[in-house]
Amino acid sequence: MFRKTKWWNLDDIKKPFGLKILVRRNSDFFFVFTIILSILDNMRIVCISDTHSLQHNMLHEIPKGDVLIHAGDISNRGGERDVTQFIYWFQNIQGFDTKIFISGNHDHCFEQVNKPHHKRDYDWLRNLMVPENLAQSDVYYLEDEFMIIERPEFSRPIKIYGTPWQPWFYDRAFNLPRLGEELEKKWLMIPEDTDVLITHTPPNGVLDLVNNWRQPNESVGCELLRFHVERINPSLNVFGHIHEGYGVKKINNTLFVNAAICNSGYNPINKPIVIDLEEYNGQIVATYVEE
Fold it and tell me: Are 49 and 24 members of one domain?
């Protein structure tokens, strides 16, 4: 497991053994190696969103972690070329045990593929998105569904739920009427024991401020989602959609992350956001890690 040398590179140390610090002390007679062992009791989550087919032009590299989350808008219009290139790129990202993505309002093909009159138009997407094939690269797509991650650091499984819907936003993919019954039904599908919630839209009033000539200084996140997030109280809510809202905010027990990589000018200049998920006295806590 370790290289046969007096010094060990921390990059060579594999979890879950958790060799965290190595100190070498020198005396007049012999060398003493002091190893400080610490159980690595966190799950590192790297968050990105809104790459809009510009994943190869990202200004910042994606740091390594345990779980990589992409919160939608993988493309500009959901075309075959753009989506295929994203999937291949995502599959080939190294350094993660699990990679998860959802759709966004620009990813039209993921909504159209479910409509009967488009049944044959998206055979390429069905072939591309075979779950068994994606899982071979540790990739998982979530659309109104959850997955479970079991790790020895936690006393129980971690539940992650992903959903692409948003209030109406220029009549794009996965848009539903704001404050409408259809949208309410989507949020009611979120399990009450969700630990990590991945949405494309922000909750209303949380990292969702738009300021342009069409919507001057307006919060455009979802009011209904805000209500249900406060009710469910997940440890982490990752989203994107509103590029101007990029950042991190803690409200009560939930850490909110707007992980949009593109800025308002669609330049992919924002850094991936790193979060540590840890358990304290039975409670799952999300903490922002400045890289």
Answer: no
Q: Are residues 162 and 126 in the same domain?
A: yes
Residues 34 and 46 in one domain: no
Structural domain containing residue 27: 1-40
Residue pair 153/41 in contact (Cβ under 8 Å)? The answer is: yes
Long-range contacts of 282-291 (CB under 8 A, 24+ apart): 282/155, 283/253, 284/154, 284/158, 284/195, 284/235, 285/235, 285/253, 286/45, 286/196, 286/235, 286/236, 286/254, 286/255, 287/255, 288/248, 288/250, 288/255, 288/257, 289/44, 291/63
Residue 67 pLDDT: 98
**For residues 277 and 286, what is the distance between their CA atoms, to the nearest angstrom?**
5
pLDDT band at 105 (very low <50, low <70, confident <90, very high): very high
Query: What gap in Å lies between CA 269 and CA 248, rounded to an integer?
Result: 16
Residue 288 phi/psi, 5-degree rounding, is: -75, 135
Residue 41: closest CA among 184, 154, 174: 154
What's the rounded Cα separation, in Å, for the pair 102 and 25? 50
The domain total for the chain is 2
Contact 198, 144 (CB under 8 A): no
Q: What is the pLDDT of residues 46-96, one digit of tens each?
A: 999 999 999 999 999 999 999 999 999 999 999 999 999 999 999 999 999
| 132 and 176 part of one domain | yes
pLDDT at residue 15 in the model: 37
